Amino acid sequence: MVIDTQGLSFNFGNQQVVKSLSLQVPEGSIYGFLGPNGAGKTTTIKLLLNLLKTDQGSIRVFDKDLQNDRIDILSQIGALIEQPAIYGHLTGKENLMNRALLLQVAESRVDEMLALVHLKDAANKKAGKYSLGMKQRLGIALALLSDPKLLILDEPTNGLDPNGIIEIRELLIRLVTKYKKTVFVSSHLLAEVERMATHVGIIDKGELLFQGSIKDLEAISQPQIQIEVANTVDAANFLKKQGLTVNDISEDHLTMPFISKIQMGEINALLNRNNFQVFAIQKVQKDLEKLFLDITQKA
Amino acid sequence: MKGFILSFRSEFYKTRKTMAFWSAVLLPLLICLMLSIGFFGNSEKLSNLPGVMLWFEFAAPVLVVMGSFLLPMLIVFQAYSVNNIEHKAETWKTLFSLPISKWSVYSAKYVYALFLVILCLALFVLFTLGFGNLLGIISPGLKFNEGHIESTLLQVYFKLLLSSLGILSIQFLLSLLFRDFLKPMGIGFVATVAGIIMANVQWKYAYLFPYSAAMLTVRSLRGDNRPNDGGMPHITVDFFTKDICVSLIVAVAVYILGYFIVLKKSVK
User: Fold this and answer.
1) Which of these ranges, A94-98, B162-166, B243-247, B248-252, has the smallest mean pLDDT?
2) pTM to 2 decimals?
3) What are the phi and psi torsion angles at A64 (to 5°)?
4) How large is the angle between the packed helices B182-200 and B150-177, nearest 10 degrees?
């Protein structure tokens, strides 16, 4: 395991924000650390980087104890915590040069990173004048600068436009598949994590509710078909008579379990043939809230 | 040690284009320049002064301002600036997650603030001597070339440096703990005013208050600054007075205390 925590707990005053967390992040994985805002994700990341003192439990990274081998461990980690920490009065390139100086990384690596995150043209612009997306990309470049074995990224796609999100996702997948890195990435978006993670940990109110591979998660988070139809109650009754399962009915749509695309097409045709006017039919994922309900109800 | 040197170089790299660094250069330059212009305008009146007296007349206004207010407030500003750069960019979390010991990061920042104070005071000495000699050349009536105060001036400024170390440690720690500009600046301002008053009313325990040390240093010079038998002023600089000892003890104690606070502190 690259990250292995046992019974990790942390309090802010009287409030326990991380409760007996046992994370297991395998080598070569993209570990999606999923949870709503305020669930304890950033606090956990700060504990992993030794920025907060652990109240209880242990943290092992690369099979070493974080308390005893702090510097050795940190030398193999690149991190982006919350919004990127960038000196606004320095240019993008100077921000990287400063970090390169501290980490004793060659200047050529700075140019490589600027090219990687598409900031070459803005390299000499003051970082304070960057857009949120550019700052986020610079933050990722800073995290990658030392070519670390483990990347810890806290909501790295925050503030990025769809193109930027896709780029970051592809970059992370490439880092893991091609360069054998391990990525620990937090997010509050289930869809985002599902698209890139190999492993998932779900945290809410400081507690780890689920941990496992993405396949294990998919078993819980079954996709559904959402059908927008003229008369939802009649349509639902009709479908039930055909031996199909209807999960939920609302005024303007009904939901059913998704089995396959072909079956979805058949349902559409069936409804149309029987004079139920279908306005829209689509595959949807459960949102995070429903997934939490499922997981907590199972537990 | 390597971590310390890298962090120190990074401090310079980060601040080299900011007022934190340039205030240490511009302040002595502008003050000495203004003083020189004043002297040049009054060169006729001052031309009957002998060389050494002329040098003392030239150096004294800066020293009085330094001791009374400028040096403590400069330190308050510089200690704030080197820490504020991290508060503003929210980079503490990055600094303390680098593979560099917390001691190196903390010490490099402290020593950099100290370096700025030393740089500023060294430039005051350099510009005082430089502008004095320049005035002697462009206005030959001013007999700067007939006297020398290099060694005395160095000693006085060195003592001022020692007197400022206690304030530096306190202000450094306050600026590190509070991101809010008003707290370290407000406390520094009030303490400086209190220090000046204590030194000026000659309160017998003023030496225990580090913010009085600069004023006490300047006042101690005044005592000796009377013409001796030869009509020349005579200054002896006693480095290890009670106020300097207190300043040094406070500097070391608060510096160490600050390190333990940094170790225990959660990085937001």
Assistant:
1) B243-247
2) 0.84
3) -120, 150
4) 140
Q: What is the DSSP string of B180-205?
A: STHHHHHHHHHHHHHHHHHHHTT-TT
Nearest Cα residue in chain B from A76: B99
Put simply, the answer to whether B18 touches A89 (Cβ < 8 Å) is: yes
Question: B144 pLDDT band (50/70/90 cuts)?
Answer: confident
Q: Are B66 and B214 in contact (CB under 8 A)?
A: yes
For an interface test with A, which of B86, B95, B97, B260 has the most A Cβ atoms less than 10 Å from its Cβ?
B97
Lowest mean per-residue pLDDT among A157-161, A232-236, A286-290 = A286-290
Chain B residues within 8 angstroms (CB to CB) of chain A = 6-7, 9-10, 13-14, 17-18, 85, 88-91, 93-94, 96-101, 264, 266-267
Rg, Å, chain B Cα set: 20
In angstroms and rounded to an integer, the radius of gyration of the C-alpha atoms of chain A is 23
Distance between CA atoms of residues A182 and A198, nearest Å = 11
CB atoms within 10 A of CB A174: 11
**Tens of pLDDT along B178-189?**
988 889 999 999
CB A85 within 8 A of CB A139: yes
Which of B238, B211, B242, B212 is CA-nearest to residue B224? B238
pLDDT tens sequence across A6-42: 999 998 888 888 989 899 999 999 999 988 888 889 9
Chain B positions in Cβ-Cβ contact with residue A85 (cut-off 8 Å): 89-91, 93-94
Which pair of tokens denotes residue B9?
A: 């170089």
**B75: which 2 tokens?**
């330190």
The ipTM of this complex is 0.85
- CB A27, CB A174: distance < 8 Å: no
A64, A72 in Cβ contact below 8 A? Answer: yes
- Backbone φ and ψ of A278, nearest 5°: -95, 120
Residues B94, A142: C-beta atoms closer than 8 Å: yes
pLDDT, one tens digit per residue, over A179-210 is 889 999 999 888 788 888 999 999 988 889 88
Cα–Cα nearest to B261, from B103, B83, B94: B103
